[in-house]
Amino acid sequence: MRYLILLFVLLATAARADDVKPFNPADYPSEVQKALRYANEECDSQGGGQVSFTPDTVRRIDLTGDGRDDYIVDFHDTKCGDRETTYCGTGGCLLDILVTLPDGSVRPVFDGYVRSYEIKAKPMKRGAARTMRFDLHGSFCGGFGAQACFKEKAISATPFEFRKP
User: Fold this and answer.
1) CB 64 within 8 A of CB 33
2) How far apart are CA 82 and CA 159, in angstroms?
3) What is the pLDDT of residues 117-160, one digit of tens each?
4) Nearest-angstrom CA–CA distance, 139 and 84
């Protein structure tokens, strides 16, 4: 009986793995595609090779609270040929945040390097923007590289950046 259960679990897992759709930049709006083209341009400028994106390179999520999909383009697992550090450094990896406006167009609101990010729980107030917590290079908090530096930002259609003191 155990072997039958194990076989069923393995088949179910394999079926789920077959459902994973390969990453296709054409599945996203032109502004998101533009952010992805940067990866190709940067790889070419470094004499790299084929850029490989992972299925989670682009995340669709309503960040502004307006019910429209917004986009997070995270280059943390993107590779340029056999290079793993083209899009990352001591300050983290390149992250783009793009929001969808009421007219359906998409606007970039953040483009920078972050070590990691966390999207806070949905606010209780309907239509309120989501807050993101960013783990940044220590210099953004007046320190140096390895020091902890966290900043939070409610995501709206207004572009933002983090500045060093």
Assistant:
1) no
2) 33
3) 999 998 888 889 999 999 999 999 999 888 999 999 999 999 99
4) 24
